[in-house]
């Protein structure tokens, strides 16, 4: 009688059998990028790491250590989900279609977009319902935005919808003025944070480039030394001469 065949298992199948009591201990001293990788290895670990009550302190501790060490940019001022922030930093998919390459990181929107979805997530002006209430000179800076290639601000369509809904629900001019002022202050904080992230990315890219150049220089130097030793080894007097060992 033929032996029963075992179902095919992935290389991370052992992670699905981790006892529930051991999961916090395993994840406590892990960095945010490793936590993100673990959340994509098995259903049980993803369920654990997406639970705010169970894994919230673990994510916050991991991000705090990573930010202090300069491994990741500062966390968003209004962050409500650490896993979403991890998706922005370490993921590679679009937040809208979920399968396109999320090459466009919008720090002011806390999102990744692919080239196809990005144009549908931004707009250049207020909705028509608000255009007659707020002059063009007053609504700039009310919602987060990103700069287009020509320097034109592109505003978040989602933020625009939320702003329009809340603004139109107000009844008095005083309430509208207070809401607009709060919105301006919030947007200023978000835009300042976005600039901080851009500066961090530029510095990180420069640091990585220097590290790659140094690694390449070390490899070239080692290769030069190896070739030099091989060349000397072919000389006639090599067997009788004593060569230094640290060439």
UniProtKB/TrEMBL annotation:
Protein name, UniProt field: F-box domain-containing protein
């Amino acid at each position: 009688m033929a032996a029963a065949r075992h179902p095919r298992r992935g290389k991370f199948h052992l992670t699905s059998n981790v006892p529930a009591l051991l999961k916090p201990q395993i994840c406590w001293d892990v960095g945010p990028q490793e936590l993100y990788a673990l959340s994509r290895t098995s259903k049980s670990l993803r369920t654990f790491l997406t639970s705010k009550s169970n894994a919230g302190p673990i994510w916050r501790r991991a991000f705090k250590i990573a930010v202090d060490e300069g491994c990741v940019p500062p966390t968003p001022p209004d962050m409500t989900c650490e896993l979403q922030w991890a998706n922005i930093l370490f993921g590679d998919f679009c937040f809208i279609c979920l399968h396109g390459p999320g090459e466009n990181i919008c720090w002011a929107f806390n999102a990744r977009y692919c080239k196809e979805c990005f144009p549908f997530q931004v707009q250049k002006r207020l909705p028509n319902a608000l255009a007659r209430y707020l002059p063009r000179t007053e609504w700039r800076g009310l919602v987060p935005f990103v700069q287009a290639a020509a320097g034109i601000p592109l505003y978040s369509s989602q933020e625009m919808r939320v702003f329009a809904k809340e603004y139109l629900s107000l009844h008095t001019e005083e309430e509208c003025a207070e809401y607009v002022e709060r919105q301006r202050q919030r947007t200023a904080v978000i835009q300042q944070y976005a600039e901080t992230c851009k500066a961090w990315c530029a510095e990180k890219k420069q640091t990585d480039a220097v590290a790659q150049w140094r690694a390449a220089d070390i490899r070239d130097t080692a290769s030069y030394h190896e070739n030099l030793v091989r060349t000397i080894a072919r000389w006639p007097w090599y067997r009788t001469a004593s060569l230094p060992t640290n060439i």
